[in-house]
Design goal:
This protein is of the alpha/beta class and 550 residues long. It is built from 20 helices and 20 strands.
Amino acid sequence: MKTGGQLIVEALKANGASRVSCVPGESYLAVLDALYDSGIEVLVCRQEGGAAMMADCWGRLTGEPGICMVTRGPGATNASAGLHVAMQDSIPMILFIGQVQRDAREREAFQEVEYRRAFTEFAKWVGEIDDARRIPEFVTRAFAVATSGRPGPVVLTLPEDMLMDAVEAPAAQHYTRVEAHPGRAQLARFGDLLKEARRPMIILGGTRWSEDAVADIHDFAARFHLPVGCSFRRQMLFDHMHTSYAGDVGIGINPALAKEIKDSDLILLLGARMSEMPSSGYTLLDIPYPSQTIVHVFPDPEELGRIYRPDLAICAAPAEFVAALRDLEAPASPIWAERTAAMHDAYLKWSTPPETGPGDVQMGPIMTWIEHNTPKTAIFTNGAGNYATWLHRFHRFQAYNTQAAPTSGSMGYGLPAAVAAKQLFPDREVVCFAGDGCFMMHGQEFITAVRYDLPIITVLVNNGTYGTIRMHQEREFPGRVSATDLVNPDFVAFAQAYGGHGERVERTDDFGPAYERARRSDKPAIIEVMLSPEAITPTRTLTQIREKTA
């Protein structure tokens, strides 16, 4: 006889879970008690949104579901921010929510929410466990659903009294991963299309990749001399210094790359959905019938043909598809080889930071310093804001699992993701990029990094404004600044008050020494970079945007 709380923890262990992020609540005390001597590592967070984003980051970097636990009502709705990230980003995650006792349901009891109605748009499956004997069934199914097809989050709600029931239940077993493989005829058809092409292009994206799969796509691109782009915030899927790399297919795309995509006669969408951001507002490919020949490889049949009608649809995960490409014979002298080389040269020019800019601090030289002084295995995280352009455009990712950033564009993601990444990979350098607005969304999780001795480095770009919104505001309503100015704390004092290390950079040359001191401190650190609000983008100032519009 075991309690529901004990069965939850046993099912997690049986399915390979080794860590949980949470904010505790009285609604799932029985689970917390079962975790006490379980061997599962528990990261106690300060807000449920941050806890859910940590679980998302674990799922993002491992391919296994990240586990988060929160209490009912306000705890669950706070966590919905991280749930939305996982859903739009196709990240495996399981959110456990303590629920009101069974005999109080449908009475609007204290903190009651009916999650099967509320969270349907936020998760692949929302289930409630009424009978403790079914816990092994529900939890194993949750792992399978979260990882199968297009990965995503699952929500399981746990009535408080059910967790206290002592029952007999079958021992939980590890879930079975479901894989889809390309057929021989499909591979042969792809090979024929590639032979007929004159201006082919590969666009990588999505999840269900692995280090081996990334190595395979590098090899395939090299053998065929094919140009490769990475979908928005999936840049870690291809080495940017590889001679086939053509650039980031995302916000602020290189116009030369956008033209090449439009002019391509064959595009392999590999794991990518090619949604609004990577498609430049659905302008790179015509909907529903692209002018380019489209081969779409995706692990979920519901996505194939949903937006773009492909000429060849292959239901397969990226890892399975690229493994099958090993036997495809490459042409001796591909006619597109010179085009590929030219696209890589264009990328290198596009990704070279500018040397000057407005104010006493220039981000261009700072990015150059970062490129020369951080290891290739360093993990970079960020949330949302114009500051992220400096990282996405000018950092040249060269290794798999070195990026954690939300394609959903969620602010506040970078800091909790950095905490999770450092906990997962303690021997690797983890750098969080954040804006002053973005950081304050989940800045309280800095204390989580301090508590668990996770020496992340946060590069906090402080321009005193919600930069992206201000940019759009100046474009649409020049000179009428409303609701975008910020008043900030002293972030150096903030870091020190939390028990971390703090630095302020007021001149460009101060950055390198400040970063080295932060690294040597071996503490969670904040490097506050005082950037002029005029430096709103790498290429245009606020004044230039305003004057062009006025």
